[in-house]
Structure formats: C-alpha cells, structure tokens
Write a structure and sequence with these properties.
The chain is an alpha+beta fold. It has 4 domains: 6-145, Beta Polymerase, domain 2 (2-Layer Sandwich), CATH 3.30.460; 146-231, Orthogonal Bundle (Hydrophobic Seed Protein), CATH 1.10.110; 256-389, no CATH class; 397-456. It has 22 helices and 12 strands. The chain has helices spanning 18-26, 36-42, 58-65, 102-105, 107-116, 139-145, 154-158, 162-175, 181-189, 199-212, 217-223, 225-231, 252-261, 267-275, 297-311, 316-328, 337-347, 349-364, 368-390, 404-409, 416-431, 438-456; strands at residues 6-7, 31-34, 50-54, 72-75, 82-85, 90-95, 126-128, 132-134, 147-148, 178-179, 285-286, 292-293. The strands form 3 sheets. Strands 1-8-7-2-3-6-5-4 form an 8-stranded mixed β-sheet, with helices on both faces. A two-stranded parallel ribbon has the order 9-10. The protein has a two-stranded antiparallel ribbon with strand order 11-12. β7 and β8 (132-134) form a beta hairpin. α10 packs across α14 (267-275) and α14 packs across α18. The longest helix is centred in the last third of the chain and has 23 residues, at 368-390.
Length: 457
C-alpha cells in the first residue's frame, strides 16, 4: 500500500446513484461506490454499471428498494450481489458483511481489504457520502498523471496471469494513459504466460485496444511492443528487416509504427496499417545496384493478415475488409474518373476512403523527403473520389434506365445471362462509354444479344 487517504472533494460531476447511497445510509448501513465507476465518474464519464459496497445483507438491500421506483431488482445466487435498475441508472450492490454482522462493525477494514484486491490503483478508489474519497493506493494521483499502476507488487500480479497483462494494456489504451515503468517491466518479464491465453480472448482484447485507443495508439504499441510481438509472432520477421530502397529510411517494423502514428480512429484502417507490410520479408529481392524490391507483397501480406485474424477469432466480415485493404494498399492508381469509378465499383465508397487512408499512413512512414509529394497525390485521388461521388457517377444495376423485363422483351431469357447483360450495361455507364438513357441502353443490349447469338451459332 502506498498510503491511506480519506479526502472530501468538491465534485464537478453529478452523482446519479446518490439516492441509492443515501437510502442505505438512512437505514443505518454503510455504503460507498468503488472500482471502475468511481474512476469513470472522476473522468466525467457515465459508467454502465455503478458498483456499490455496503454493510447491509443481500436480503436487507432487496427489501429496502422494493417499491422504491426500481424497474428491476435481482439477487445473484452465486455471490449475493443485488442488482438495481431504473431508467436513470443500473447499479450492483455487493455486501461486505460476509453473511454476518462482523463486517458492519469493521466496514472500513473490509473496504480496505476489498480495494487491495483490485488490479490497478485507478480502479481501487471508493467514495461515500459520509467519508468522501477512500483512496489507500493514491489512485486519484495516478488518474491526474495519466498512469496505470498495479495495486501492490506487479510481479506478483502478473505471475502466471497472462490475461492481466492484456488487461493492463487495454486499460491504458481505453483511458489514454501510459503504463507505469514497474508495471511495464513486470508485464514484459512475465509475457511468456501469454502463450496460455486462448487466441480468441487475445483477439477480443486487441480489438478493444485498437478500436478504443485515442491518438496515442502508436506510442502505446511502441511501449508494449514486446507484448504485441509475443501474441502476434507473425510480426517478428519485420523487426530489423532493412528495405534498401529510396522510399524508406526505416526497417519494415519501424516503418509500420511510423505509419500507425498517422492512422485515425477507424479500427479496420489501424489493423490494415499494422499488417500492410507483414509479407515483405518473404518477397524481398535486390536488383543489380542493390536496391530492394518487394514485388507482390500486398497479396502475400493480405494472406498472412487473414490467417492471423482468423486465428484470433475475428469475424469473417472484418477479416475480409482488413485483408482487402492490405492487398491493394500499394496498387498503382490512375488519376482519372474512369479509374476511380472502377475502384468504387469494386470496393464501395467507405472501403475506398479507407484504402486512401491506408495509403496516406503508408506514405507518412516512408522517406520524409518524399512525403509531401506523395501525400499530394493522395489528396488528388481524394478529390477525384469526391467529384465522382458528387456526380453520382457510381451506377449499379438498379440505377439503369432499363430493367430485366425490358431486356426479356427484346429477346433475352431469364437466368445468369440476363444478369450479366445488366451488369455489363451498368459498367459501361460507369465508364462513360454509354449514356444512361433507355434508347441507348436497349440498342446496346440488342447489339450484344446479336453478337452472343452469332458466337454460339
């Protein structure tokens, strides 16, 4: 324990569950908020569930709030926790009495023991209307300084506890905090315990880290890279792999971290950036003057990324989107509306914007002397995308001025051939080779029908 403080502070944020605390105290019971909810409340966030510790027994708690405006009252048969819910809040009241009256006589002692079992100091703060803040591990100071520290010895906490290591990184990510030096050192020293953590659990924690972290994701990955490389060993060949190319001044791994610094909050973009060059070590060749090349690394990287994400239990849809961005991240775009229409037809608007974002991040991690020129190129592609969207030039079959019934009337038969004909007309409109006018479309459809008939005869 680093100290014991009971401090009253002027609270800036309203406390929705104050009536619950007050009712418990009015009937002679001790009650206080504890854990994550106190942390979130101090940060100005609204907790999903308010945790309340009380000297009252479960039956007494349920009886106190029966008919007190609660929509639901439940008692967990396993641990005796009482759940209360109304339209304003949801809370869980846990009895510290141990099933007897002993806990009521020494509530503060029980509270101290309970807080000592919490994981991190920022989650080991309590608050009551009577005593104010109870902060034996100086969690509020760590909140103010943006640090994640263990309650007690971090080596004891992480020993044989792989999930706790991931939880520490995830907590830092979601709060935008940095891990304490002692915590980080202990987590790294015990990282071999991560091998026993189920892959889908690892995947779930990674998704929370990559989706929930703010602008500091790249910095957090740098700080915890030994942990990341332990759970994603497929990344290890990138470390120290020199690129020997004028476009790059970093090895593949450092380039990836630099690119990640430029990524926004989109989880799919972030994972695509992490994996976009994972296949480079397997595609490396040198020409006669010693310049390095990575021909086909986009497709190789996409295959590896898909396998890794599958191992981690990512669903098929997000896997496909990430792999698609990785596969096409280094394609040679043509600066034309026609080319952009084709890419929109293949990817769709949202995924196309993601692809341009991945390209921008990739460039950001390259040779600083070339960044300005190459990012201007991305800006031009983005302008073309916006122009094409503004012109509503992205046509689908449903946008055509003719329907399948119109083509049947001129000789087409229902089936695959009819669908292919309609998609072909839509592609010609997209490319600007044909106007979306009924007469023009029917003339082209008739011509194609004659051609196909002659080929088959």
């Amino acid at each position: 324990m680093r100290g014991w403080l009971e401090v009253r502070l002027e609270i800036e944020h309203p406390l929705p569950v104050e009536p619950v605390l007050k009712r418990l105290e009015d009937f002679g019971h001790r009650a206080c908020l504890a854990g994550d909810c106190v942390r979130d409340w101090l940060l100005g966030r609204i907790p999903e569930v308010w945790e309340i510790l009380s000297s009252a027994l479960p039956g007494e708690i349920a009886g106190l709030f029966a008919g007190a405006g609660m929509e639901k009252i439940s008692i967990n048969a396993q641990d005796g926790a009482v759940g209360l819910r109304n339209r304003h809040y949801s809370c869980e009241i846990i009895s510290l009495s141990g099933g007897s009256r002993e806990g009521e006589r020494d509530f503060m002692g029980c509270l101290e023991e309970e807080l000592s079992r919490r994981d991190f100091t920022v989650n080991a703060i309590a608050y009551s209307l009577k005593d104010g803040f109870v902060d034996p591990f100086l969690g509020r100071a760590d909140l103010e300084n943006g640090i994640i520290c263990c309650v007690g010895d971090p080596n004891r906490y992480f020993a044989g506890n792989g999930p706790a290591i991931l939880r520490a990184v995830r907590t830092a990510a979601l709060l935008g905090f940095r891990p304490d030096a002692r915590l980080l050192q202990a987590a790294i020293e015990h990282r071999e315990t991560l091998a026993a953590v189920p892959a889908d659990y690892v995947g779930g924690e990674l998704r929370q880290i990559f989706s929930g972290c703010g602008d500091g994701l790249a910095g957090l990955v740098r700080q915890t890279q030994e942990i990341l490389l332990t759970i994603l060993p497929e990344l290890i060949p990138m470390v120290g792999f020199q690129q020997n190319n004028r476009y790059h001044v970093h090895d593949v791994w450092q380039h990836t971290l630099a690119a990640l610094e430029a990524a926004g909050r989109d989880e799919i973009v972030r994972f695509a950036v992490l994996f976009h060059d994972i296949g480079k070590p397997y595609c490396y060749t040198e020409d006669g003057d010693g310049t390095g090349h990575f021909y086909g690394h986009g497709a190789v990287s996409a295959n590896i990324a898909d396998q890794v994400l599958g191992r981690l239990g990512f669903d098929g849809e997000i896997r496909a989107k990430i792999a698609e961005l990785v596969k096409y991240h280094d394609v040679d775009f043509k600066e034309s509306h026609r080319s952009m229409r084709r890419w929109l037809s293949r990817l769709g608007p949202e995924q196309m914007r993601r692809l341009l974002e991945v390209r921008r991040c990739d460039i950001w991690g390259q040779n600083p002397q070339l960044i300005r020129e190459r990012t201007e190129e991305i800006s031009r592609f983005t302008s073309i995308l916006e122009e094409v969207e503004a012109e509503e030039a992205h046509f689908r079959v449903r946008d055509l001025a003719v329907s399948g019934a119109d083509l049947i009337k001129i000789g087409y038969t229902p089936g695959r051939g009819l669908g292919e004909a309609l998609r072909g007309l839509a592609a010609m409109v997209e490319d600007g080779r044909l106007h979306n006018e009924r007469v023009s479309l029917l003339e082209e459809a008739s011509r194609q029908l004659v051609v196909d008939t002659n080929i088959c005869s």
